[in-house]
Amino acid sequence: MITRISEARVRPDRFEAFRDVIVNAVREFPLLHPGLVDHEVLVAPPDGLLYISRWRSEEDLVGYAGENWRDQPVVLPGEEEYLVAPLQVRHFTSTPLT
């Protein structure tokens, strides 16, 4: 499983609007991307938002984010008007706790 974290630094005056845009955009992702195991939006007002998604495999993640999934975030149209900096994306895999 691969955990993908997209971090947005949001203009404080646009924070609530951006949160709503993201929540509405990702709501249907499980139906659109069968390899998406689960996902959530975490907020840290006034300017921080994380979109965390967990993917069954690299192949599933490529289907969502493209061949450059390791380095390039998925950006929604018009998203840049809400942000103070470009999206950052990071990936993690699980390590057993035994």
Give a topology summary.
Elements: E1 2-9, H1 15-26, H2 29-32, E2 36-44, E3 48-55, H3 58-65, E4 88-93
Antiparallel strand pairs: 1-3, 1-4, 2-3
Unreliable stretches: none
Give the strand order, joined by hyphens, for the main sheet.
2-3-1-4
- Helix proportion range: 10-25%
Helices and strands, in N-to-C order?
Answer: EHHEEHE
Cα gyration radius (Å): 14 Å
- Supply the CATH architecture: 2-Layer Sandwich
User: What is the first-to-last residue Cα distance?
Assistant: 17 Å
Q: Count of DSSP E strands?
A: 4
CATH topology value: Alpha-Beta Plaits
Q: How many independent structural domains? A: 1
Oligomer state equals single chain
Largest sheet: 4 strands, antiparallel
Description:
This protein is an alpha+beta fold and 98 residues long. The protein has a single domain (2-93), classed as Alpha-Beta Plaits (2-Layer Sandwich), CATH 3.30.70.100. 24% of the residues lie in helices and 32% in strands. It has 3 helices and 4 strands, in the order βααββαβ. It has helices at residues 15-26, 29-32, 58-65, and strands at residues 2-9, 36-44, 48-55, 88-93. Strands 2-3-1-4 form a 4-stranded antiparallel sheet. Strand 2 (36-44) and strand 3 form a beta hairpin. The longest helix has 12 residues, at 15-26. The protein is globular, with a radius of gyration of 14 Å.
